[in-house]
Write a structure and sequence with these properties.
Helix 3 runs antiparallel to helix 11, helix 3 crosses helix 12 and helix 5 runs antiparallel to helix 12. It is globular and about 65 Å long. The longest helix is centred in the N-terminal third of the chain and has 52 residues. The chain is an all-alpha fold and about 550 residues long.
Length: about 550
């Protein structure tokens, strides 16, 4: 890239970043009420659909889907389809979640009056899901910013990570959910505009003939005979049978994990009512389906124009495929048209990471302030402003912790962090939500075993799997702790999470059962008006439940 192009990119990127974050600060909540900070008010069904679609398409999906398709062909396309299939599960959960939820995942469990323990467990599981994902997002944006701006040293990339992370955290501290919503809406518009431009330019090179694009992608993939066959993503030395099992486990992780992510649940709770939640998820399915089609074309275009060798040399995981593709279109970055395309894609990717980071940070902070601190400190009688102050401090604390972790792991192979987050969500939060929403015999003890047991099983199996040590692409390839043969631990951890909840609830006492599912619980708009009357009895009910 020429120095002039890089200078223009620097000015445009910094201007876009400052204007976007300033806009987020301006649309922040006007008061200190919990509903305004955690939900951000109503943005209309169209804005809510765009925001929910943005949450379901995080930076890891946008970059990772294109990269896996460019490197692994058929396997990458199937992984992209799994993202769409996860919304079918979310469609089933959206209505009950909106009916019984208020802000966080812990609010779904709190309707059973089980005391502080389930809320604290939900907060711990939420942090276990959000911190690895937040670390990955911040490390990604720091590395991408450093490379795009010509900062190749590890120290310079760490500084870029810290500076951008602090800006995101500051905007989230003051903007709350309105900031996250604004970022998601901006992301949706800019991302789809950039992807549409890239797809049109790619297809134009082949006279809008998909067959020519597919043949070119096959020939440049390095393994043209296997590009459209399952198994190209299998690690070297892994048996075909074990590779198929791992591939199925990865699909299971994506399909089950996305629907139970804390920031996805929190976003569903911002929708106006139950009917709007169902309609919004249906429309999001159409948007994600459109993105999957765009991602397939962009992935094949990256394989055809850039080649798997160059993509792998830049990043073994393939996250560099889309930036490398955009840099080679319309005559390259040395021309005005090529530089414009590259800058558009760069801004789309940056706002994608900004939006994802803000949403994940807010979900983790809400778990700390609303589920853990508010209950352990018995602050139910306090005014909403005290909780929002705690929430803002929690956003700052979680954000700074994520920045510190991102700077620490900047030069590591951290692709396993996204899989770890999804696996924890699928193994702990999903079983707990399903049982709590649909099974009246679910007990407090069963919930605690589900959350802690599912999370612990997932983490332990990951530590002893090939993605952590022993394999060339592992986090610590020189270590040899990989006695568990599967890379996708969800095939074991998800059944363990469901089984723990079922068995412990079946063996538990009658006094800890959740009782019949309350179908007539008022929505959050009416629940806020009754919070003052319910708070006076929450302390005594919590004490009674804790004794059982």
């Amino acid at each position: 890239m020429s120095s002039d192009t890089r200078a223009v990119l620097l000015v445009v990127f910094l201007g876009f970043l400052v204007v976007t974050l300033l806009f987020c600060l301006l649309v922040g909540p006007e008061g200190d009420e919990a509903d305004a900070f955690y939900k951000g008010g109503r943005s209309g069904l169209f804005g809510s659909v765009l925001a929910l679609a943005g949450v379901c398409l995080p930076a890891g999906t946008v970059l990772g889907t294109t990269g896996t398709i460019s490197l692994f062909g058929y396997d990458g396309m199937f992984i992209a389809l799994s993202t769409l299939l996860s919304l079918a599960l979310l469609l089933v959960l959206a209505g009950p979640l909106r009916r019984h939820g208020r802000f966080t995942v812990g609010d779904v469990f709190a309707r059973h009056d089980w005391g502080r323990g389930p809320r604290i467990a939900a907060g711990a599981a939420t942090l276990a899901v959000c911190l690895p994902l937040l670390t990955f997002e911040l490390a990604t944006i720091g590395l991408s910013a450093g490379l795009l701006l010509g900062l190749t040293g590890s120290g310079a990339q760490a500084v870029a990570t810290a500076m951008i992370g602090i800006l995101i955290v500051s905007a989230t501290v003051f903007g709350g959910m309105r900031c996250a919503t604004a970022l998601q809406i901006i992301k949706g518009v800019v991302l789809f505009a950039a992807c549409a431009v890239v797809v049109v330019l790619v297809l134009r090179e082949f006279h809008f003939h998909p067959g020519g694009l597919l043949r070119a992608a096959e020939s440049q993939s390095g393994r043209p005979d296997a590009f459209l066959s399952q198994g190209l993503s299998r690690e070297a030395g892994v048996s075909p049978a074990l590779g198929v099992v791992d591939f199925v486990g990865l699909q299971l992780t994506i399909v089950l994990g996305i629907a139970a992510m804390p920031h996805v649940v929190m976003r569903v709770n911002t929708l106006p009512d139950v009917a709007s939640a169902t309609v919004a998820v249906r429309r999001v399915m159409h948007i994600v389906a459109a993105f999957v089609v765009l991602a397939v074309v962009m992935g094949l275009g990256a394989a055809a124009f850039v080649g798997s060798a160059q993509i792998t040399a830049a990043d073994p995981g393939g996250a560099s495929a889309l930036p490398l593709l955009s840099a080679g279109l319309a005559g390259g970055t040395s021309t005005a048209g090529g530089a414009t395309v590259f800058i558009l894609v760069a801004c789309a990717l940056f706002v994608t990471v900004l939006a994802s980071t803000a949403g994940v940070t807010l979900a983790a902070a809400a778990a700390v302030a609303h589920d853990v601190f508010r209950r352990t400190q018995r602050a139910d009688r306090a005014q909403g402003g005290s909780e929002i102050g705690t929430a803002r401090w929690a956003v700052a604390g979680v954000g700074l912790l994520g920045i510190a972790l991102a700077v620490t792991v900047q030069q590591w192979n951290i692709n396993l962090l996204t899989t770890l987050s999804l696996a924890i969500a699928a193994s702990s939060l999903l079983p707990a939500l399903v049982y709590s929403l649909f099974w009246s015999a679910y007990t407090r003890r069963g919930l605690l075993w589900t959350l802690y047991g599912g999370t612990g099983t997932t983490v332990v199996l990951h530590v002893f799997s090939p993605v952590f040590s022993g394999a060339p692409s592992a986090l610590f390839p020189e270590w040899h702790l990989n006695w568990f043969p599967l890379q996708s631990v969800a095939l074991v951890s998800v059944p363990v999470g469901f089984l723990l909840g079922c068995l412990v609830s079946a063996l538990g006492g009658q006094g800890t059962r959740g009782g019949p599912v309350n179908r007539d619980r008022p929505s959050s708009s009416s629940s806020s008006s009754s919070s003052s009357s319910s708070s006076s009895s929450s302390s005594s009910s919590s004490s009674f439940s804790a004794t059982h």
